[in-house]
Amino acid sequence: MDYLGEIIALGIDSVIFGVCLKQYFHCKNAITAVKGAEFHEVGPQLEDLVNNTSDNKIGYIAIRGTVKPLGKPLNSINNRKLTGVVQKLKIKEHVIARTTAGFWSDQERTIHKVYNTVPFALQGQGQAVEILEPLSADILDLDMVSNTFEPTVPSFADHLWGFFTGVRQRGLQSTEELLREGAVITGIGELSRTKSKILALQPPLNGTPFYLTSMSISSLFRKLNERKKTYRLLCIMFGAIGMLIGGIVLRRYWKDRTEQRMAEELRQSLAESRKERRQRVRDTDLRDDQLCIICRTNPREIILLPCGHVCLCEDCADDITTNCPMCRTPIEQKAAAYII
Ligand SMILES: [Zn+2]
Ligand SMILES: [Zn+2]
What we know:
This protein is of the alpha+beta class. The protein is built from five helices and 16 strands. Strands 2-6-7-12-11 form a five-stranded mixed β-barrel. α1 (4-36) packs antiparallel against α4. It starts with a helix and ends with a strand. The mean pLDDT is 89. The structure holds zinc ion (2 copies).
C-alpha cells in the first residue's frame, strides 16, 4: 500500500485519458464518415437512390430540406406566432456560492429540462423524408426563442441564511429553444424506406453519429475538426500526466528496491562476520555452559533484559521473542553480550 496515492491518481488519470481517447476516435470516425457521405437536396431523386440499393437503405447520407411538421406543430410558449417541431425548455438556477477557499463565485445549476417533439419531415421539390428519433442526434441545432432572467430579491432573512449556508440565490434563467417550422437544415444519417413505404432518415445502427444541423457541411467539418483537436490535446495532456505519475512510481520502486538490496547486503555481511567470530571462539574449545541452550553449537551471544540471562546465540535469539527460555520472564529487550 506504499503507492496507494500514486495508484489512485494513475487510475483517475487513466479513466480521463480513456474517455478523451474514445471521444477523439469518435470525432475522427465521424469526420471520415461525413466525408464519405453523399450530399443531396431533398427531392424525388432520393427515391431512385434508395430503390437502386439492394436492401432499400443508404447507410450514410447528407440531405438538406425544409422542416415541415407531419401534423399539428408545437407552439412556442413565449411567442405564440412561432411554431416548431422540437422544443427544449430549460430552467437554470443561478447562485453565488462560497468556495472552500472562502471566495464567492457564480454558479449555475439546471433544475428543469424538458424536450417536446412532434413528428416532422425534411421537404423539398415535392418530396418528404421523415426524421426519426431527432433527440438521438449528436448535434441538434435549435433556435433560441426566448431567454429571460428573473433576479431574486433577497429579504434580510435570505441574506442571513445565505451568509451561514454559503449559498445565495441570484435568480432563475428560463430559456426556450425551437427547431422552427420552415427552417432549412441538413440531416446526416441512415436513409431507408419504412414499413409504411415512406423515406425516413434515422440514427445509423452502427453507431456513426446522427446530425440535424443548420450548419453547412464545411462548417460541420470545422466544428468536428476543432473537437478532434481539443480531444487530441487533452489526450496528450493526460497521457503526459500518466507517464509522469508512472515515472514517479517507477523511481520510488527502484529506490526502495536498492535500499532493500543494500539492507540485505549489510545483513549478510554481519552474518558473515558473526560466523567468523564464532569460528575463532569455537577454536578455543567452549565449555558446555558457554554454549547456547537451544542449539548447543554456537556460543552464547545475547543478553535478555530485564532478567539478564545470557543463554542464546544470535540465530536462536531471532526466533525467541516472547519469554526467556530459562526463567520465563517476558523479554523486553535483547542486546549483544561479549563474554570473550
Ligand atoms: Zn543457538
Ligand atoms: Zn531469564
